[in-house]
Batch of 2 targets.
Target 1
Amino acid sequence: MLTVSNVSKGYGGRTLFEDASLQFNRTDRLGLVGPNGAGKSTLFKLILRQEEPDQGLVTFQRGITVGFLPQESAPIGEETVLELATNFQDPGTVSDDYYFYADGPAIAKAKRLLKGLAFRETDYERPARELSGGWVMRAHLARLLVQEPDILMLDEPTNHLDLETLLWFQGYLRNYAGAILVISHDREFLNQLVTGIVEIRNERLYRYVGNYDVFLEQREAQQEQQLAAFKNQQREIGRLMDFVNKFRAKASTATRAQAKLKQIDRMDRVNSPEQASSTVDFAFPQPEQSGQRVLTLRKVDFAYGENVIYQRLEFEAQRGDRTVLVGPNGSGKSTLLKLLAGVITHQAGERDLGLRVKVGYFSQYRTEMLQAHRSVLEEASDTPARVTELYIRSLLGCFLFRDDDVFKKVSVLSGGEKTRLALVKLLLDPPNMLLMDEPTTHLDIASIDALVAALSEFIGTLIFISHDVYFIRSIATKVLHINAGVLTPYAGDYDYYLEKTKALSARVALTSATPGKGLSNGRPETKGGRSEARPNPQVSGKDRRQEGSDARKALSVQKQKVSQWETMVAALEGKQNDLANELEKPTTYTTPGRALTLNQEIRAVSHDLARTTADWELAATRLAQLEAEI
């Protein structure tokens, strides 16, 4: 359907693509990935014919239709929501004969799709310009789905969707009749949807079969293979050069030395594995340590008008907590975060900060944190911290605001740029209690990895909301489920929460209304910030002794399981080491096909090792829980 042939494209002396090619077929569902500035949006523009390549061709099969959803700022006029969803003159079309008419079936379909995207029937006749930017993007998304173009091109489509709508959208796309090309930072979304990954790296397009997790495995194996081949070749070159340097000065051996030089020149050089460029690299400056009790809410009431969210709410955060808030939409997660931050004021009760606590709030709506009329540098400089402009510009540079980028107005920044700027402002005046509402929205995958690495080193207290399962698993050590004003704490990480609630999937569990037994009136039964099990007065002493004996047996069994997993992990690591060492030996390459076999074995062992390590971590987590209960 679509062919990108030997395309080159550059701007102002910088090359984005050099001889890049891609074949896109009717059944393809591809994720497009790469670091900031690699050229993802530019490739979309080339496909949409919004820009022309410097060299090469972008061609389509005759009659193919293309629908495009930009990341933000899609056009809008005076139409209603329903009119927008049934406006079929799409400027993203690449075919001249792509026209539709808003007939009865199309209108009925638009209404079904709008409902799936969480619009109410009363919204259909509202002027679209009255909606927020996120809801306008949903209406544009409905328009594309009504049209059903042959190729659906989506740029970060999940940014404006709540989790429940995202799950509906993900399910709808699984059954979509056309081909899909999507840019997304959401690993779980890519894992559930795509059958292939196209990576933009060092001016080329690299295609992989499988979802995002499989792509990571393949790329790692590929880089290991390339590194081994590079080392082998460098050793061979070094051996030949030793001969040349030793014998070329002697007349009797100069000819042989010259032959060795020619042998080196004839080699097909293996490059060292390519490293990603233009990624965010930062660490949170470590703040002053707070007291053990960080923040307490006592008997707090809060309502939006007649809509009561919390009554007599009790909550306490301890130093070092890394808590993710989960629960259905409208349950009060963002409200709790704002109450903790002091952004909104409770109607009754008490909010008590602990000793030396400094709160930092990272809003889901970046515009609440930034002044649109300011430049990037002006906004970053608006900080109580006593720092120099040189330091500020250095930190901005770490977040990819370089050279004249610091003079761009906040109003023209992309969603990802606004997120990075908001992070800069937090870093300039670091808190020791960090409250974050969807911090990964608009960040690309490399930036999310950098944020995970930085938060892993953060010594303060963290409470956050996210629908990024990868991010949650990487950061959270506690889970707090919220529904209808009821808080249910889980003193373990996200996998522990999934195990306890017997969740059907990691994604669905984020918005489940009834994951487990709740605690009345939003008040967890706690003592010293930890869950306390109350003894049942109807249980006899004999039964309690039996329960203790059962618990000790379970602990012994779990220790054996952990030991078994550790042994398996060690064995696989040893096997992986042996295979890698053999691959690096020059003699390996004298046996035809041996290197290929070794690489296949390494990939299989790496896959087994990742799976076994995950099982070991789960068993070790369960062991720690059992030890804490005895």
Note: The first strand starts at residue 2 and ends at 11.
Target 2
Amino acid sequence: MAVFTIVSLPALIPFFQLFLNQELVAPPAPAEPFGFGNADEHLKYQFMTFLGDMEELSALLVMCGIIVCLFFLKNLFHYLALFFMAPIRNGIVHDLRRMLFNRILNMPVAYFDDKQKGDIMSRFSMDVMEVENSVLKSLEKAVREPLLVIGSLLFMIYLSPRLTLFVFGLILVTGFIIGGISQQLKKKSAIVQHTLGKLLSFVEETISGIKVVKAFKAENFLSQRFNKVNSYYKYVLNRVLWRRDLSSPMSEFLGVTVVCVLFYFGAQAVYSGEISSEAFFAFLLAFFYIINPSKNFANAYYSIQKGLAGLQRVEDILLALDHLPESDNPRGIKSLENKIELKSVSFEYAGADRPAISEVSFRIPTGTTTALVGRSGSGKSTLTDLVARFYDVNEGSITFDGVDVRELRISDFRGIMAVVSQDPILFNDSIYNNITFGYENCTEEEVMQAARMAFAHDFIMETPNGYKSSVGDRGNLLSGGQKQRIALARAILRDPPLLILDEATSALDSESEKMVQMALDKLMKGRTSIVVAHRLSTIRNADQIVVLDEGRMVEVGNHKDLMKKMGEYYKFINLQSLSDSEQQ
């Protein structure tokens, strides 16, 4: 497209000559034979001689035909450029989102501790869209316009080196002015994207906690906070748009100023005989071929600077360090044969003022149930997260059959365990797909059998579409007990050697708890289990009880032995019994 745009410039010289002089004047025949150095002279002589043999209207008709053909080819290639750029542009955006999602899937849990979900979602949506709209859509201009500028400049140098040098100096001045503004645009754009992330996080949190908002009449409070963030977003966005929109009028004003100056000096060159009038018109047209591409390139440059701020936020995730790296030569694990052992385990969350776990050591023989008890904040859930290697210990080690978990292949390691938490996570999909989530090698009968063992089959069959019924957003079409039993069926289906239960019944009513507890008893039988629980019925049947207090292990043993000691466990059980009596 750039080539045919530049070729159309010299073709216009005889067109102007017909209008200005009413006759075509062929140049003298070149004295030297045809060669690379004088090819343009030979072509010009042959072309003008060809036109000179025609009548004026015939020559004009030929010139019009040539110009129409050149501009047809120019626009044909323009379309082809856009045609081939579309799948490239969309492919890059597709790959960016795929890489971003895969990166998030593979990041450790610790990465999300201090991240806002709305901000991460903003990077998926707004920032990637900004890259597409600002960067990728400007790539064509960023490549094409410099070619047009260079080609036009070469043609201008051919016609008049002195005038071209003068124009080039003016262009450098205008480019310097535009470049200064664009640097500020990139900085402001980064602030805009960050503020938008905070805005979306605020909305996401509000929607998630809408019941609490209503219950505590916090509508006005949240509205004021939202308006504050929203107003700041408007403030910074206005300044970005003002700077971006300044590029077009400023480029046009500077371009017209340069044209006026060029007219003045060009007229002097024509009067002095340095350049012919028709050549000067072609020179002017070439200069306009520089102004519009330069203007487009300036806009593209502004857009790219704005889009790079969004790309930087995407790269913050893509290039983030993996704080849970896999060993260079990981060892596989298919089952748990002997024991899990914690040796002087200590762990502290980033930014915390004290360790969450400190010098904890105990063993979990295979096929046994270990209960973790203690007050809220004593480190029970943190300890299960360390066993599941959602975090790495700061000191000490956790071994499976004598092998440090950091030496095990993560995919194999996670394949031998199942986790059921207090708040079961269900996805907006069918009941069947929630049970088989991440586990494809199963039959429909196995899924139903897992649901029966979790005492979920009966209520599933009562739903409108059975196993194909949707659970709704976050499972909101099911009760708490139903969601928990679906989560248990998911764990049962995998038949894992290791089961981690994090207060799986604490949020349920008595009837639901009874159903879930029966399912848990079936699930834990003969299986290595780690249970975080407050319920006395769950704790007393454990083979081993580990008592935690402020991140430290204060007692370990079975229910009978610990009650005889009348220590921290004894106090905890008495308080729990009192609490249960008051509830009854």
Note: The mean pLDDT is 79.
